[in-house]
Amino acid sequence: DPWSGHPSRRLLAAGLSCCTVLALYAASSLRDPPPVWGRGNDGGDEAVTVLMWWVPFGRNQPLDGCERRFGIRDCNLTTDRGRQLEAQAVVFHHRNLMSSGLKNLPRVRPPGQRWVWMNLESPSHTRGLRDLAGIFNWTMSYKVDSDIFVPYGYLQPSQTPAPHLSMPRKTKLVAWVISNWNEEQARVRYYHQLKEHLPIDIYGAHRLKLKDNSVVKTVSEYKFYLAFENSQHPDYITEKLWRNAFTSWAVPVVLGPARSNYELFIPPDSFIHIDDFASPRQLALYLKFLDKNKSRYRRYFAWRKRYDVQQMFFWMEHGCRVCDAVRAAGKPPKTIQNLANWFES
Ligand SMILES: *[C@@H]1O[C@H](CO)[C@@H](O)[C@H](O)[C@H]1NC(C)=O
Ligand SMILES: *[C@@H]1O[C@H](CO)[C@@H](O)[C@H](O)[C@H]1NC(C)=O
Ligand SMILES: *[C@@H]1O[C@H](CO)[C@@H](O)[C@H](O)[C@H]1NC(C)=O
């Protein structure tokens, strides 16, 4: 357990002040997260056609970038239902499936064609799963054990490791962007406690206005970002971390699944977890300490010499990844019998 020596645990044990202990704390050695994907095209070079049955969120986009952007060759993405019979895989976005209904699934199902269930929401915001047993062949979601794993973002080893880090100038302390305010949610309850000890700037509906309408531009001026998920589920780590915090070079303070779950995807010293602290007050003290101690703060960026942050390119990349999966899978048939139990586990 690389975390057993964490300052907050020692702090509890020793009853010392936060900052005395932190000053004595030396970073444990880094562990690296595993690579998310190889670089395209293992297992055959037949061209693959993937049909998106619905255009997710009605958002059209160019479909010809699989090779250029992701190094995935001979991958033909289409939204033309007239090509269903030639498709090796058809992707169904859960949200559209719920609004259109099961009656709007294709009538014919060529043998060998994979039907892929795609969902990027958490179980707390996903309904209708119990009607979907025995229909799909593959799952595609942020869950690591999906047939096709599509996280919101991932790290890639740097092509050219940077000797020096150049981060945006930080003039502000803590930001949070939230649009769906709900007093019942863990993130809102935690915020109410944290703000007693620390000023927090909130952006979103009825709050502060984003600079140039851009989350990244706005958050880049802050040292810390509250990457609080709307619900807590294994592997459910969203653009709140990948875009709002990492792309803005703000240190993420996370509320989501357990620290050990985050560490499957990102280095242990790239983020601060609320569970690292006995109380919101302790967390606030730690953030204030980091605000004063530049060298300690900068340690949260050491991993950036080795990794680049990639955001998942919605939804072209999802389609391209299906081509890889089709080529890697070969022929064996599979049916997802218990979609609800798997997704909610
Ligand atoms: C900052 O923290 C480091 C330990 O992480 C400590 O060695 C150093 O003295 C601190 N600097 C200041 C100015 O408090
Ligand atoms: C994709 O499909 C189009 C239209 O059928 C075809 O012209 C093109 O050659 C295909 N490309 C690949 C890479 O299969
Ligand atoms: C896909 O699932 C359907 C429905 O259970 C099944 O009939 C078909 O054989 C499966 N196909 C593949 C290629 O797994």
UniProtKB/TrEMBL annotation:
Known pathway: Protein modification; protein glycosylation
Taxonomy, superkingdom: Eukaryota
Q: Does the keyword Glycosyltransferase apply?
A: yes
What is the topology of this protein in the membrane according to its UniProt annotation?
Single-pass type II membrane protein
Query: Which GO biological-process labels does this protein carry?
Result: inflammatory response; lymphocyte migration into lymph node; oligosaccharide metabolic process; positive regulation of leukocyte tethering or rolling; positive regulation of neutrophil migration
Localization, per the record, is: Golgi apparatus membrane; Golgi apparatus, Golgi stack membrane
Q: What is this protein called?
A: Fucosyltransferase
Q: Name one GO cellular component term.
A: cell surface
Catalytically driven reaction(s): a beta-D-galactosyl-(1->4)-N-acetyl-beta-D-glucosaminyl derivative + GDP-beta-L-fucose = a beta-D-galactosyl-(1->4)-[alpha-L-fucosyl-(1->3)]-N-acetyl-beta-D-glucosaminyl derivative + GDP + H(+); an alpha-Neu5Ac-(2->3)-beta-D-Gal-(1->4)-beta-D-GlcNAc-(1->3)-beta-D-Gal-(1->4)-beta-D-GlcNAc derivative + GDP-beta-L-fucose = an alpha-Neu5Ac-(2->3)-beta-D-Gal-(1->4)-beta-D-GlcNAc-(1->3)-beta-D-Gal-(1->4)-[alpha-L-Fuc-(1->3)]-beta-D-GlcNAc derivative + GDP + H(+); an N-acetyl-alpha-neuraminyl-(2->3)-beta-D-galactosyl-(1->4)-N-acetyl-beta-D-glucosaminyl derivative + GDP-beta-L-fucose = an alpha-Neu5Ac-(2->3)-beta-D-Gal-(1->4)-[alpha-L-Fuc-(1->3)]-beta-D-GlcNAc derivative + GDP + H(+); an alpha-Neu5Ac-(2->3)-beta-D-Gal-(1->4)-beta-D-GlcNAc6S derivative + GDP-beta-L-fucose = an alpha-Neu5Ac-(2->3)-beta-D-Gal-(1->4)-[alpha-L-Fuc-(1->3)]-beta-D-GlcNAc6S derivative + GDP + H(+)
Q: What is its EC number?
A: 2.4.1.-
